[in-house]
Each structure stands twice: as structure tokens, then as C-alpha cells.
Amino acid sequence: MTSDSIRTTFLDFFRSKGHEIVPSAPIVIKNDPTLLFTNAGMNQFKDFFLGNREPGHRRVADTQKCLRVSGKHNDLEEVGVDTYHHTMFEMLGNWSFGDYFKKEAISWSWELLTGVYKIPKDRIYVTVFGGDKAEGLAMDEEAQDLWKQHVDADRILHGNKKDNFWEMGDTGPCGPCSEIHMDCRTDVERLAVDGKTLVNADHPQVIEIWNIVFMQFNRLKDGRLEPLPARHVDTGMGFERLVRVLQGKQSNYDTDVFSGTIARTERLTGKTYTGDDSKVSVAFRVIADHIRAIGFTIADGQLPSNTGAGYVIRRILRRAVRYYYSYLDYKQPLLHQLMDGLADQFAGVFPELKAQVEFVTKVVKEEEDAFLRTLEKGLKKMEDIVGEAGAVRATATVIDGKAAFELYDTYGFPFDLTKLIASENGLGVDEKGFAAEMALQKERSRAATALDTDDWVVLNNEGGSRFIGYDSLETVTGVSRYRKIKAKNKESFQIVLETTPFYAESGGQVGDTGLLTFGEEAIPVEDTKKENNLTIQFVPRLPEVLDGPVLAQVDPELRKATAVHHTATHLLHAALRKVLGTHVAQKGSLVNAEYLRFDFSHFAKVTDAEIAEVEAIVNQKIRENIPVMIREMPKDEAVAMGAMALFGEKYGDRVRVVIIDPSYSIELCGGTHVGSTGELGFFKVTAESAVAAGVRRVEAVAGPASERYLNGQLGVVKAVREQLKNAKDPVAALESLLQEHAEVKKRLERLEAKQLAALSRELAAGAVAVGDVRFVGAVVDVPSADALKKVCFDLKPLLEAAYVVVLAAAIEGKASVAVMIDEALVTGRGWEAPKWIKERVAPLISGGGGGQKSLATAGGQDTSKLAAVIEAVRAAIQ
Ligand code: ATP
Ligand code: MG
């Protein structure tokens, strides 16, 4: 069976059991402060489990792209070293939202594995939750009895809380679970050691493939469990592990999920994958694994960056680069060359990568280039460190922890690479010191971002924070829950209303601000954000009385100015696609009352002419005063209409579609908009720049903001015009002014040169004999220190041999001195201009200087002793 047909079989099986098949949610999570990435199939359904939202269908199945590289579930260090943990993997799952429970979940899993996939029953073990005293939870008798109807009793094992009680994160839905484990060892091995003893013991051939969670609790912040409103089923089966079992392989990497990428890597690097535990094999596995995580997260809209989710992607990418650089001996960018093959392989399941493969490839190549440069610098640094340590080999045989940490932190060197290079040079590394530096760093970043959130205090559980802000900007409602938060030692509060007119930050549009009035007491709403499906108002304090009616009012002006920019963003997006091409896809956006910012994929700078064309189209659409139509419809219908299908919509029955002339702009969007385009008044692009490889940024203004912007620009023109004495044509006036300026400057320079030449002649005529030396010493009037030097040069040909010149001048309140000595005297008598400057001149003028032996200059603060300077040099000759 190919991996594709294994996946299809799973989905078909659950379709036949009344499940709706839904698409995978994006890997990158948007509205959940507790998670950066989807780490389990259930994430996108969290609201259904918590009862915050009603599902469209009570039975659902899918394959979900998951990433386990941060937070509670982090497998990164295992990946590639073992053969069954991935960064990104597909989780096949079936769900019941308050519908069927343990009985069906257990018997269907058995039917699928043994009846449909035909896995031998004597290779399967199942586990049930054995209870936990501390939590006050009993063992799961119900699940055990149900399993007994299918499996021999001695193949049913009891598990502890760690393995058999599943939790998504520190808080949230959770419950006891049953795992299904596969014994993939040979018959000989199985006879020798009872498989039972190897379950959940990290044996590479006895692995968990499916976890069936019976969701019945919500974990609170203080650790307590509270029962969920309804009971649910949440299952997750590792697709790559299932494929390996069904294809009879010893390693996930030997299946057709990875073999294509591995073969391509072999061709590119000229190395061979043997599947053993060597670093070369680990490198192959790391690359085959990481390329998927990198490709799919970028396709889901997350660019590598220095913070948050973007930083996690950057680290995964760098880990892959280090492995091919160090162990496959490949010193140029490799990963981007594998992207095409990967996109083709998954085009049928996750078309988002194929659709953007050119863009993703470009981003990856740029990252690889940059990191390879850093890596090379790091290796040089490493050489220095090794060299230094070598120089003091007698005392130091260890690279200190600080240096190792700098290599890690600044150059992306993992500790094991540092250790390897060190040991090749007969050195050790201070592991304790490194760990201490690492702990310090962790503490620093924790302190910087720590957000302490209390549990919700629920006043009224009915109110699901219904959003009415598309139609109304104020309402009288009640508080449904609130909690205290603490960030950077500052306390504030979050309030959820029963109904709310406040728009929560999303889709680039900033959250609304406004007022909550409780009786006489008005509290400002400083921001509004979404957490899953709850709209949360941020307030600095709580009112005296919380449980009465509250008047909720959005700041109407800010909201209007923001809506203007959101509608403008849609007009801009469509215009960019018209002018630049349909490869233009949104990569990020910010919409607020001041301006809009729009990031999109495009490979070249947008020229002034293109910008002008875009502006013209948008302003034309504004003048057409097109009504902005907003419709809710099933997602498929929207896509069929030609809506720009932004990959990355969560599963939900209906989508909101914003239409501005069906032949011009149709977008899926949850934002707030104006009634018709005329309200934008005028649109103007204010900036164009690059943000990342293949991503450009345009900033623009519309509505009152564009009026302010234009007035600002016109103000500048007016001021310039006034300076130009209200010339009719200020540009021509300015040009002629600049030309005049250049001519005057040239003339002045010529005049000065003439004057200096005259001065030189005069000085030469006044030269006197001091012993056998021709001496010129004078306080002169010149405009600059350069002019002083120039006079010296001019003097040279006018003086007979064996001369000494000293000129001093007061220039703009400061003393300036030049001393010139004939070369013959420099060689013949050992006289040196810098020495005289230092010893005789500098002290007199309170300054310093230097230069060539035959010509040196000095500058100083004191201009009162210029005549004394001349005498001091004359004295040096005598
Ligand atoms: P393990 O103990 O093997 O790490 P887990 O207990 O973390 O697994 P669950 O959180 O129950 O796994 O996830 C459900 C299923 O997803 C697992 O049974 C397994 O098949 C698969 N799975 C979990 N983590 C990974 C991973 N890092 N790579 C590939 N598959 C995974
Ligand atoms: Mg795990």
C-alpha cells in the first residue's frame, strides 16, 4: 500500500462511520496565546471541547499537519537521531464532539487496524489509564472492559498519568486515554523478550501509533480538574508510523513518505544513506524531516525571523544546515533544491506548498545563504579559540563555557559541534559553564516575556462573547468573566462581555479601543484581542461593581479610520495583482487608524511607475463608489466564486466574504469595512521597501489620514516656495539656484587659489637666512588648514635648497600650524617635522598633531601664541 492510499483508506473508513472529512488547519496558530504551532489534531477543535462554540458536525475526521518543536510537546532533539519522532508529522484523527464515546471509539479503531489494514492481532498492545491517587482519579474500568471484547486480557496494560492521561498544554481540555502500540520486532526477537515489557520503554521497534483520548476534563491554572460540559473523543494516529508498520519497514524514513527526498539528497551530495546510527545517516534523516517542517510552515504564512514562531522555524532550518555542512560535507545551500520534489509529493493532500513553491524556495535559499556565511565566521572564531587555548596548552585544556555559549548563541553552533571540533584539537569543553550560560539566557528571555495569567472568574457562563460590532458600535450588556494578568510586574485585567461591539485584533486589523461604563464609573478599553473564540477587552482596572449592566462603546472615529484602511487594503491587494501579476499573495498586513501596511510575495522592487499605476486603479475604484458587500457562505462556494483562497482558514462551516465589485476583489476576511469605497476619499502610497527574500512591503494611507499626509507634503512645498520668494515654478527656481551656487563656489575656489599663490610668492621673497638654512616663518591669514598646507607646497619650488618653513594661522578661533623641512635636512641632520610639532609647537597651542618627517601639521585651542610658535621653530634650527 502506498502512503497516499493508506491515508485515503483512513479517511474513507471514518466517512463510512458518519464522519465529515475536513481539511487540516494551518500549522501556524493565529489566535491562541498558549500555542505557537498546532501540536495535535485536536487544537483546531479546542473551542468545541470547551463548549465555547458549536460544531457544524458532531463527527469529524481529518489528517492534521502537526509540529512538535516547542512548548509542552517538543521532540526536536530526538528527530533524526531516532527513526520515529518527527518535527512535522501528519496526525490522522477522528472526533466526536459530545456524540459517541469510548465504545465506538475503541471498536472502530480495532476494526480499522485489524479488519481493514489487516495488522496481525498478536503484534498489538493497548494501554488504559491505571488511575492516579494525587489527582483523585480511578482506573479506567470502562475502557478496559470495552477492550476485553477485542483483545486478550494480557495484551491490555495499565499506564500511569504520564502516558495515559493526555493534556494539550498546561491548561485546557484533557482526559484519560488508551494507546495502541505496535511490536515491529522480528519473530526471533519477539520470542526472546516479551513485547509487553517494552511498551512505553523507548524501544525503537515497539512504538505507539495511536492515542485515543476520552476528553472529559478541563485543566485549570491552579492544577485542578473541572469536568467539561460534555464528553468527547479525540484520537491521533501518527501517519508516518502507520505507514511504516503497513509497509513492513524498520524506520519511518524507509517508507515512501521520505524515500524520495532521501534519494534526491543522495544525488545532490554524492553520499549514501545506510540507515544506521552514524552521523551521516542522522544527517540524511534530519534533512528529510526538517525540509517538511520548513516548507509547510512557510507555506502556511510563517516566515523565518528573530522572534516567536519565526525563530523556531529559523532554528529548525539551521539545524538542517549544520547537519549537511558538517556531516554530508556539503558547503552550499541544499535544502531549497529539495522543495520542488516535496511540493509535488504532497500536491494532492496539502496543495498550499505546491501553490507557492517558487516563493518558499526563494525564502529558504536566502536563509541558507545567510546562515552558511555565519557558520563560516563561526568556524573561524572556533579556530581562534582553539588557537588561543593551544597557545596556553600548558595550563588550559578546556574551552570555557562562555566561549562555547557565544558560538552557540551568535553563530548557531550546537554544543555537540563545538565539542567535536574541540576534541579534534585535543581540547575539552566546559560543559557546566555552558549549561550555566544557557540557564542565564533562558531566565533573561523568560523574564522579558513572562505573562502571568490567573484563572477566569466566571460570572455568567451563558454569554459566549457574541460579536455585534459589524453592525453596532455600542450596546448595553454584562460581564461574563474576567481575570487578572501580570506582565513585567504590571497588573491589569481582561474582561469578556456577554455581547461585544469591540473588534478583536485579527487579520492584521488592530483591536478596537473605547469605554466600558459601569453605572457612573467609566473604564477605558485599551485593546481587544481574541483567544480562540473569546473576545477579550483589556482594561487597566476593574470597576467597583462588576455584575450590573455595562455600557460598551467603541471609539467611533478610530474604528472608522481603521475600516477605511481595511477596505483600502483590499483595493490595494487587487490592484497589485493586476499590475504586478497573480503571483502576488498576502504575506502579512497591518491595518490601523493611521495607515495600512501590506506585505506580499514579489521578487523585484515595485517601480515608481508601477506604484503610480496601482494608485490610479485604487483611486478609480474609490471614485466609482462601489458598495462593499459582505456575505457569509460555505467556504467551497466562496472559493468557487474566485475568492482569494487564503490557505489557513480554520475548519468552520461558513466563511465571511468581502466583495468589492465581484469582478475586482473577493476576499475571505473577518475585518470591518466601510459601506462603499467612496468613503475612502483618496488613496496614496507612502513607502515601498523589502522585508525578506521575495517579500515586498507597501505602506499607504486613505481617508482623513491621506488628507493629513497630503497636507503635510503640501506644507513642505509651500515652505520651499516661500524660501524661493514665491517663484512661479519652484523646481526651475531651485535648479537655477543650485546651478548658481555651484558656479559661485567654483569662482571662489579659483580666487582663493590665486590669493594663496600670491601669498606664497610674498613669503618666499621674505625668506631669511638662519645659519645655512633658508627660513620662512610667518603668521598668515588663510581660510582653512588645507590652505595652509597648500601654501607650503606652493613655496617648495620658490625656495632654494635647505629650507625650513613654519606657518601659523588662526582659523575659526582655533590655532593651525604647518612645519615643512627640506628633505636634505631631514636626511642630512636628522630633523623631523612631527618631532618639532610634538615637542615645540603642540604645548604652545594646547593641541597636538603629526605627519611626515618633511611636512607635519598641528591644531590647537590656543591662538594667542602663534608668534611664539614661529620663534620656537626658528630656535630649533639654531
Ligand atoms: P511518543 O510517546 O511516541 O512521543 P506521544 O505520546 O507524544 O508519542 P501523542 O501525543 O499521544 O503521542 O500523539 C498521538 C500520536 O501521534 C502518537 O501515537 C504517535 O503515533 C504520533 N506522534 C506523536 N509525536 C510524534 C512525532 N514527534 N513524530 C511522529 N509521530 C508522532
Ligand atoms: Mg511525545
TrEMBL record:
Keywords: Aminoacyl-tRNA synthetase, ATP-binding, Cytoplasm, Ligase, Metal-binding, Nucleotide-binding, Protein biosynthesis, RNA-binding, tRNA-binding, Zinc. Pfam families: tRNA-synt_2c, tRNA_SAD. It catalyses: tRNA(Ala) + L-alanine + ATP = L-alanyl-tRNA(Ala) + AMP + diphosphate. Residues 1-712 form the Alanyl-transfer RNA synthetases family profile domain. Its EC number is 6.1.1.7. One of its GO terms (molecular function) is tRNA binding. One of its GO terms (cellular component) is cytoplasm. Binds 1 zinc ion per subunit. One of its GO terms (biological process) is alanyl-tRNA aminoacylation. Its cofactor is Zn(2+). SMART domains: tRNA_SAD (SM00863). InterPro entries: aa-tRNA-synth_II/BPL/LPL (IPR045864), Ala-tRNA-lgiase_IIc (IPR002318), Ala-tRNA-ligase_IIc_anticod-bd (IPR018162), Ala-tRNA-synth_IIc_core (IPR018165), Ala-tRNA-synth_IIc_N (IPR018164), Ala-tRNA_ligase (IPR050058), Ala_tRNA_ligase_euk/bac (IPR023033), Thr/Ala-tRNA-synth_IIc_edit (IPR018163). Signal peptide: none annotated. Zn(2+) binds at residues 566, 570, 669, 673. Gene3D superfamilies: 2.40.30.130, 3.10.310.40, 3.30.54.20, Bira Bifunctional Protein, Domain 2, Threonyl-trna Synthetase, Chain A, domain 2. It is found in: Cytoplasm. Belongs to the class-II aminoacyl-tRNA synthetase family. Consists of three domains; the N-terminal catalytic domain, the editing domain and the C-terminal C-Ala domain. The editing domain removes incorrectly charged amino acids, while the C-Ala domain, along with tRNA(Ala), serves as a bridge to cooperatively bring together the editing and aminoacylation centers thus stimulating deacylation of misacylated tRNAs. Catalyzes the attachment of alanine to tRNA(Ala) in a two-step reaction: alanine is first activated by ATP to form Ala-AMP and then transferred to the acceptor end of tRNA(Ala). Also edits incorrectly charged Ser-tRNA(Ala) and Gly-tRNA(Ala) via its editing domain. This is Alanine--tRNA ligase. It comes from Dinghuibacter silviterrae. The lineage of its organism: Bacteria, Pseudomonadati, Bacteroidota, Chitinophagia, Chitinophagales.
